[in-house]
Task: structure prediction
Amino acid sequence: MNFKELDLKRMVERVLTGEELRREEARAVLNCPDENLAQLLAATLTVREASFGRRVKICVLRNAQSGICPEDCNYCSQSRISQADIPIYKLQSVAELIEGARLAVASGARRYCMVCSMRGPGAREIEHLAQACESIRAEFPRLELCLSIGLLEEQQARQLKAAGAGWINHNLNTSRRFYPEICTTHSWDDRVRAIENVRAAGLSVCSGGIIGMGETDDDVIDLALAASRLRADSVPLNFLHPIAGTPLENSRRLTPQRCLKAACLFRLLNPRSEVRAAGGRELNLGERQGELFNAVNSIFVNGYLTTGGWNFDRTRELIERAGFEVEVEAYAAG
Ligand code: SF4
Result:
């Protein structure tokens, strides 16, 4: 099936009634000719608007423990095999994590995600992060609190939930088939188990991945489908930003069009989930970033873990120029 054989109107109706795209349709979406991209984006916008209107949620990341991960993910500047020139530090103090939340709120964030480079936390780290969550929750009762701390047991997730965390991020990153090409120290199935533990603990799941690492179209489809079938509440979509000193440092494969088509696919396969434009959007989409909002309803500001990015003001201007609006919330208690 090629893109021109897709009945876009009918496809959108089916997606909105909860039907999953067929694989041949998903392939046609990813292979949409560039001259038809505007039609694909318009169709995707209908699905996006059905759940999120024209709102865009702002999220901020905090690199809470940097550059000391024992894992070997090829794309990551913080892995044990990375030679990247990045800051290296242990878990930040509770006071620093609270300060990060204040900065996030001041930057328009509705969600604050504390990220630690680690295989998974031990009891001490869980205690520490739970303490940070409690304090942040007390100061900003409505700020969405997320943690990205590697492989998690259900009991650990329960402790964090009791302390006020609402979300756990654990990305699938790519398809099950392609996973051994990007990481050998843990498996895709390990990641799925961690996600199931998070779900069992009653926390919301944030799980997406990265495109541009050398995967095939079917790998991209499998990733978007896996996020959907795991009922991920949030689905971050990263566009590989190759970092000097990592095995993927020379992987510049993405075009803005490819990124936009993938974003449409993620939205069409995850119609009611938050789909978030994540790392690499500035690098890979450049002037076409505004078109992402046809598919995504959420975005990071102030950069990523070890790469810079646009700040809130610049991103707000991007959102408004594209005809969308920043989602706002009053945070303070009382
Ligand atoms: S587990 Fe996370 S922090 Fe560690 S190398 Fe992989 S992506 Fe990087």
